[in-house]
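Narrative progress, year one. The postdoctoral researcher (J.K.) led the effort to move from monomer predictions toward full complexes, under supervision of the PI. The following entry was the first complex the group processed end to end, covering 1086 residues in total.
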Amino acid sequence: MEPQPSYNPTFIPPAIRHQRPPPQMTFQPPNPKQSDMSRPVIPQANEPSQNIHSSYPSSGSNAFYPAAGSTPSGLYPNAGSHVAQTQPQQQLYPTLPTSVQSSVNPSSIANHYVPNQQPGFVSSPSPVSPQHTNLQNYSNGQPQPQQAQPYQQQHIHQQYHQPQTTHSYNGYGQQGDYHGVNNLSNQMSGMSVTHQGFNKLWGTDSINLLEQKNLIPPHGIKSPEIRFQHEYMNSINCSPDIFRCTLTKIPETKNLLQKSRLPLGILIHPFKDLTQLPVIQCSTIVRCRSCRTYINPYVYFVDSKRWKCNLCSRVNDLPEEFQYDPVTKTYGDPSRRPEVKSATIEFLAPADYMVRPPQAAVYLYLLDISSAAVDTGYLKQVCDTLLEQMDLIPGDSRAQIGFIAYDSFIHFFNLAESLNQPHEQVVCDIDDIFIPCPDNLLVSLTENRSIVRHLLTQLPTRYLESSDNISALGPALQAAQKLLAPIGGRITVFQCTLPTIGPGALTNRELNLKNASKELKNALNPSTDFYKKLALDCATQYIAVDLFFINNQYVDISSISCAAKFSGGCIYHFPNYHYTNNPAQSILFEQAFQRYITRKIGFEAVMRVRCSRGLSIHTFHGNFFVRSTDLLSLPNCNPDSGFGMQVSIDESLSDFQHVCFQAALLYTSSKGERRIRVHTLCLPVVGNVNDVLNGVDQQCVMGLVAKMAVDKSLDSGLNDAREAFINVVVDVLSAYSTTQNSLPNLALIASPLLKMFPLYTHSILRSNGFRSDLQVRLDDRVHFMNQMKTLPLSTLIQSIYPDLYPIHNVANTPLALDCDEEVPDFPLIHLCSSRIEAQGVYVMDKPELIVIYVCRSISKEFCQNVLNVENYANFNELSELPELDNPLSLRIRNFINNLQMLKPHFVSVRIFREDSRERMLFVRNLVEDRGESSSSYYEFLQQLKTMVH
Amino acid sequence: MAFTFAAFSYIIALILDAFLIFFSIFHIIAFDELKTDYKNPIEQCQSLNPLVLPEYGIHAFFNILFLISGEWFSLLLNAPLLAYHINRYRTRPVMSGLGIYDPTSIMNTEVLNKCQREGWIKYSELSQCSNYYLSCG
């Protein structure tokens, strides 16, 4: 029952932006360096330290859920406390029912025999098939009989586990990457040959993290494929770029979920720019009568006149017109309809989806004109970009625009058509703000264009002489809200200095921030609820506040960002912005702002997320206001923000074969049409813990855990959040190793589907948001946390763990198959200084910057062909690759272009030498090395190892 | 028993306790309405927040009467709730107005469940107490 919108028959294709199709999965030939990989190679930078423990207080009394009830620990609500080091086995699943606990009692671990813990467990050992052994040897690249022999004794035990592991055969094809398998060698010590063979065959081999050095597959981590028993269902599911679940196989009970120790949740990017989207206009939108679910590909057609809802199981009547197929223009089979063929679809909503006539697109810009802000020169960039892009601003003939400037007073601009030039009106009474004139502060973008242009050309120079260094953001926002209240729309704020007067005045909390965690916790939380209340008022009036922070000093993002957080806005941050002194930041600002004003926008939107009976949405993450248990109010929606939801299992799902999530976003397009975009995700239900673990989506888990960690650090402090991160990893690894049969003391075992999770966790603990030292500025930290809550998953992962490609071998690198142009298919490598070779050139791809790092022994050929210099000695910094007419240069430029195309907007490129002053931009991101105050990845793993089991 | 100050405080406590029981029932209903989407969280918080301090005040008031009249056992009985109230108000979210409920966090299932459970626990404890006051008074 979403509120309600417009009816307009025109068809507008969704915003189209070239997206490179995901690279094809290829089977990598066995790594010739395999023998090197079999021993633990410890790079020099990663020397293990003896007292790693001290860096993380491993109290085990912490996690992201303030568990409903007693213990403030454990990953899941109602699950008791978490793994501690002192009493390893017994504390694994403290609150699980007895049947489950038996599987982790010490004796069962001692002899590696796990008693029947799954229903349907078949205890007869499966025969060792020589054929499978061969397969194993084949896929391994080389036979390794010697390694298997010393463990003959254990094989007898292992035989009992065969049936258990056979469950993992279902995992065939779910795994995005087979490459890691080839690199495996001797960590299989505890497994039988057959077991190993099967696992290798199906790609579900466990990985010893301490020995396995190459975790990243060359083409990056893909989300696991969702597999159903019925083949036809596999192809129609919602794209993983839009809708993802942490578990691609849903456990059927809450106990099973607790046993897997994984968080259950969905991440959704509902308004993503799509290249292909079926849009449907019909007089009645077919929905379930009881739960209001939209008809989707997973409904069951009882007969040609009725359908059964897949969320609530109600049988509904099918309207006559639904049997009409618009493509072939014939009546008959309802399964030919686009609604039933596509999991992502958009409806043009009829009039009953509107609470009021669809609003016009209204844009109001709030410009900080305090002297510090004017000095940065941002006004020129904003005005120039607006002038250039004015024709591309989305909106129909009703679209309106307005400007308010503020220093210690509020400056309004009367843009009446009759005036020769804009008329400035200054309101000095900031404690009780009022609108100086009723009309012409917001004017039509089409009719009053000339005077708007006039204002935009004047503005950059108008306040150059001003010496007023105070910014009255609060009153300006109040004025903006009053101005937009009758219509709704978008407020865009450019903030440069800390607002110190009027309502919403803030103080500098960074100054007295010492190393006290309590102070830090308070500083992460807003100091006033002024901005939150304002945001709530805005949200009810369909106004969103978007914030651009272009600050050089502290502006208290944590307080001000509440204005965007609860009104569905977005937040940008350009630290140390200066128009001329910081060209990289000003390019980024310009590109981001250009994208911002021209991208698709949805007004007065609401999003409802429905899920199958037995599941419920538990906590929401993102920028919005939660209006009821499953309804999010989004005054504006934009294509660059994502949302996360934690899901809990309330009832047993054992009666279902699959469950569905459906997100419906109802919005008014900039052309004044009311539209509904519906995404449906369907997932199979499984009944045993191995299947659950074989369906985990590690990137999605990381995305959700990062969101939960932000909440945790706001509620109980940064140190608790850091501990909770470690506890999640330990939980996840422990849960996996109890289902495996390897020797616990020799290895740190991870599922191939979770192999990157410890690495991501280690990186995020060293990121600006969660590092424990206070070297990072408070605003940067808060902004990172805000980003974790709203970024779409792919960008989120990239900001935690940037992509690194070696590009010096461009001549020998094969070309990507799926591109029209010549784009080399560079493999991804780890962010580790031991991977950086002296003769190499590396591209680091971060969400806001692309760095090309040139090492000192680079070949002359590369210098001449790509960098256009004689040799390394002559090379200095560049901000762009020279356009040279040779294949090497062309390929590398194509590659960089391709990386740029995958981002929402172009970012600046920095090319510098290894001994440049800028090198920290690159080196700081080699997160696997040991930092000044943080452990290396290898040390982190060793610390984990002492905590697992 | 003669009409002492202690008896007087029990009579007052009994009457005020009835009010508190009414408050707790109102509280339970309010959160149920939120759960079943009947009410908007902003409106609901606006109606709940002004009632928080009066409720805590009434409870504190008859406990002061117990303190004056030296009814130590009754005071002890109420001490946990008193301490809970003080702590609850101390750790409230950053707000400029009165009250403890924040419309942006109240729709979290955890917060909703916690508030509803709080309502039921208060209700049962207060009704037990009122029986006790009746017998004492």
